[in-house]
Amino acid sequence: MVYPELQGGSLLARHLTPEVWRLLNDKETRYGVRLAHVVASGLANPDSSVGVYAGDEESYALFAPLFDPIIADYHGFGPENRHQSDLDPARLNAPNPDPEGRYVLSTRIRVARNLCCFPFGSALTRRERRIVESTVVRALEDLPGELAGSYHPLYEMDETTKERLIRDHFLFKEGDRFLEAAGLNRDWPDARGIFHNPGKTFLVWVNEEDQLRIISMEPGSDLQRVFARLARALAALERRLAFAHSERLGYLTSCPTNLGTAMRASVHVRLPRLAADGARLTALAAEYGLQVRGTHGEHSASEGAVYDVSNKRRLGITEVEAVRGVANGVAALIAAEERA
Ligand code: ADP
Ligand code: CIR
Questions:
Q1: Which of these, 143, 274, 314, 333, has the minimum number of CB atoms within 10 Å of its CB?
Q2: 213 is catalytic
């Protein structure tokens, strides 16, 4: 590719300098991932905040002169840092930020995972994607107790069911232009689907942005319970599947914002007074390391002053620290709402 005209304020535009481009332009991973593939989404969408996706595990090493500064910028995690994991609920010790249930509607914690020994979604062939799906579904259908559930392939789902699942925050949306440009929506809806238990407190998205998005969620603000369920599910799945993982970067994901814990712990919280000044709310949340999204997730608006508030950082922080940070930060936002 020729050196691109970079527009907008994405991390790609900031870090793809002519020197980095020259260094990486002729490189190719063993799954055939090249620089043009990594930067395609950011080039097609100048309003991207990040703009890059890894095509496979090797992308993070081979294209490190681009990924490393983006990772440092987003997570504050330098080349000398090593990621550490802690999924032990006994060490969480997080306060319930809204014990009386006045502000927080629901809590959701998700992690992303990809299978080792396959490229990530943007570089999978149709055949490989089907193998990923059947491997994951076999493991999911073997889960015991409250994690037991059933798998629903997207191509078998009628439109009404799909729309209801999306509206109720259980299923991924379709047609995301950032994923589209990255090649993550190829062959849609083939080999995509959702697994869930009957109560929809444990769900797994298959072959969306990452091969697995493992989700624990429920009404209310009991982060401890939601985290403990997720930790049980991850322990059970680790016994059945091998995930892409690196000593330095933790769990490896399509988007560099998800590396490390690959965890986003969020609450849906109603903050009508703070909603009067959205920019102030975003700045206040950032002081606690929190990111604010709209009621229907990333790239959506807030409805009825309900915000999705989650940890921004996922790498260089343990899972336990990330969830505790959300509990403390949300408690602080609620205190600010009461003072406003
Ligand atoms: P991701 O969580 O994978 O980063 P999104 O921002 O697109 O992706 O969110 C996915 C879905 O999860 C959306 O429908 C969003 O509204 C929903 N969601 C996020 N947090 C919560 C929550 N605390 N309670 C209920 N639904 C939630
Ligand atoms: C973008 O670059 O805007 C999209 N590819 C989404 C990036 C992930 N968003 C985030 O802040 N975690």
A1: 143
A2: yes
